Amino acid sequence: MPAASASTASTVPGEYDSFDAFVAQAPWVAAMVFGVTIVVFLTPILIIALVIWYKMRKNRMLNETMIRLAEKGVVPPAEALEAVAGGRVAALRDGPSTAPLYENARALRKGIAWSDLRKGIFAGAVGLGFVFYSMLDDGSPNGVGLVLLFVGLGYIVLWYFEDRRLAAPASATPPSPPAPPGPPSA
Predict the structure, then answer these.
(1) Domain enclosing residue 28, as ranges
(2) Domain-located, residue 136
């Protein structure tokens, strides 16, 4: 049996000596590989671009509506603005709330604080996953994982202090305004 020399071209199906040989011998497969690669990498970019475009369009339409209302001299209540901006129709149906403005602001800040906790837990968990995977793989922690872990811890600490700050004034009653000077007693 004659031995195959190293200089002969590969005769195994699916193996090619170079990219040019691949394109020359199987152009439809090369085009399919190229097309699938383009679709895989451009689809997320297209989705992100469409989401950004939609949000910008929604904000522009909301701003134009507010400008038209202001031109007519109509001032919508804050609840209506929040409901339109957040897409909550039930809030408009229920009517204006009787809660004072500072309570609405406190509730909004509490929601932001809980958002910080959510971000912290997510970033910390992803960072911890990267660190553990890297530690099992090569015995050293992953730099990106450590950054995400500490960013997550920072968000959790921020939530802790913000939540404590919001809870402290809730127990104390707001100071009452001073009594107006009355007529002198006779």
Answers:
(1) 17-97
(2) yes
Last residue of a domain, one of 72, 97, 122: 97
Name the DSSP letter for residue 44: H
Nearest CA to 126 out of 105, 164, 153, 96 is that of: 153
The verdict on residue 182 lying in a domain is no
Length, in residues, of the chain: 186
Into how many domains does the chain fold? 2
Share above pLDDT 90 across residues of the chain, in percent, rounded to a whole number: 31
- Model confidence pLDDT, tens digit, residues 18-42: 888 888 888 888 899 989 999 999 9
Phi, psi of 95 (to 5 degrees): 95, 175
For residue 144, give both structure tokens: 């990106």
Interval 42-76: pLDDT, tens: 999 999 999 999 999 988 988 888 888 888 888 77
Contact of 120 with 161, CB cutoff 8 Å: no
Which pLDDT score, from 0 to 100, does residue 37 have?
A: 92
Rounded Cα distance, 186 and 184, in Å: 6
- 113-134: string of b/e by CB count within 10 Å (b at 16+)? beebbebbeebbebbeebbeeb
Considering the domain boundaries, does residue 179 fall inside one? no
